[in-house]
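User: Teach me something about this protein's shape.
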Amino acid sequence: MEFHERLQWLARVALLFFILASAAFLSAITVIRIAIQGREVIVPDVSGKNLSDAQVALHSRSLGMKVEDRVYSPQPADAVVRQSPPPGVRVKVGQYVHVALSLGPQQVKIPDLSEKSLRADRIQLLRSGLQVGEVSSVALPGEPADTVVMQFPAFGSPDASSSHIDLLVSLGSPPLVYVMPDFQGMQLGEVEPKLSSAGLKLGKLSFVTGDEASHGIVASQTPAPGARVEAGTPIELQVAE
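Assistant: First, the predicted structure itself:
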């Protein structure tokens, strides 16, 4: 076989090998895609179904269920009010569908929780078949600490959507805040009564080397002059000796 004929033969063999390899690769991709799609299912619509029927419908498609919330609604108790993911979405086998179940129509009157402690309100809600929802805190002048100052839904609300009552709790009056005076250059004996009258107190006192004229003079301070400080904040002074 001449060199030219041998070269053509090798080229044909290489082309055939390339075609066979490409076909095998495309077949593998197709098989993988089919396998992946085979592990996916379409989420059924379980809204309005009772808990047991919804679980059966999801289990038949190899899906699980997690109850995320319970809300008041016109639907019977334990009926699915909403779901996530929504119906028609394609998901992987074994995924959980999160649902909110109905408590039925609201029959419990929302109690007045204001001006009571958070602990007392928790007990009252439990006795009423309700629960504490989100608790937020804020410093309020004239309101004792740990006192509930606001609630949602409001007292007597006839259209609550959930058994959870959100509360706003007082942290008490906010601390007094002062602007830090400048004590630098003053005698230590003058500074101490000024600290007391400003609602501050002397904290760490350290000494630095100074000349005879600067003896007993405040060389520096922490916090710095002009800083915002709360009442009772200890003030550090560096005094020349």
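Now, about its shape. Residues 1-38 form one domain. The first strand starts at residue 40 and ends at 42. If you'd like, I can walk through any region in more detail.
User: That's plenty for now, thanks!
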